[in-house]
Specification:
It contains six helices and twelve strands. It is an alpha+beta fold and about 240 residues long. It is globular and about 50 Å long.
Length: about 240
């Protein structure tokens, strides 16, 4: 792995395809384990604090993790199958629910069939958390031995991201510290969906403000449920 550093603010790493794949496989495995732990019924002793349960049954919790809280939403869905929901539980569809002013969302590189690098860019009219922000993330999709479906999404380190995809002029490159979905099949076409997100938008925003808006991000399950209902039941079957 070779570092090119014209200036401290623009340094980037040129990384081989094999090294990139090995790094993302390692990082995403750690993210998957965190997501599975967050979806476990035994996690109440691990620092998750329930903030509210909405009228439609979505439970929202938070946990202190570094400077920014991690937030979690859980919802028992009886109207869509796990595979239906899995089709819309991805970085691009989630970003579209975060902010309608997503101006670019594209796959930069496919490393494996279930492992991709994705670029997300939000415009000047976006909400404060995303205004003029870019995120370069990996997305890994796995089916566990018990049939549980997991999608792990997190930002690449800034130096690696800069080498893969140069930053747009005047854009701020934020960090999705970790996020993703766990979709557990229960019975018939019902499933328990858990979504976790921890976001550092970078730039200057008060931490309390970021943490407050992070709580709104985890409410996107409702919007994605509606998308999933429009998906054929045989998708990914």
């Amino acid at each position: 792995m070779q570092m090119n550093s014209p200036t401290p603010s623009t340094r980037s790493w040129s990384i081989s395809e094999d090294s990139l794949r090995r790094y993302v496989e390692f990082a995403s495995e750690s993210c998957i384990q965190e997501l599975l732990a967050a979806s476990s019924d035994s996690n109440r002793s691990e620092g998750w604090k329930v903030l509210q349960t909405s009228e439609n049954g979505v439970e929202i919790s938070k946990r202190r993790s570094g400077s920014f809280h991690a937030f979690r939403s859980r919802w028992l869905l009886t109207s869509v199958s796990p595979h239906q929901f899995f089709t819309v539980a991805n970085a691009i569809d989630a970003a579209r629910q975060w902010d309608s002013d997503l101006v670019e969302a594209r796959y930069i590189r496919d490393l494996e069939e279930n492992l991709s690098i994705i670029g997300l860019r939000f415009g000047d009219n976006s909400k404060p958390l995303f205004r003029n922000r870019e995120f370069i993330v990996y997305e890994r999709r796995e089916t566990m031995e018990d049939g549980t479906l997991v999608v792990a999404v997190a930002s690449l380190p800034k130096e690696i991201a800069a080498g893969l995809h140069p930053k747009k002029n005047n854009a701020i490159r934020g960090l999705l510290l970790h996020s993703g979905w766990v979709v557990e099949k229960l019975h018939d076409d019902s499933c328990m969906v858990t979504y976790v997100v921890q976001l550092d938008p970078a730039g200057w925003l008060p931490k309390w403000f970021v943490n407050r808006l992070n709580t709104k991000l985890v409410m996107i399950i409702e919007n994605l449920r509606k998308l999933a209902q429009d998906c054929p039941t045989h998708a990914h079957a």
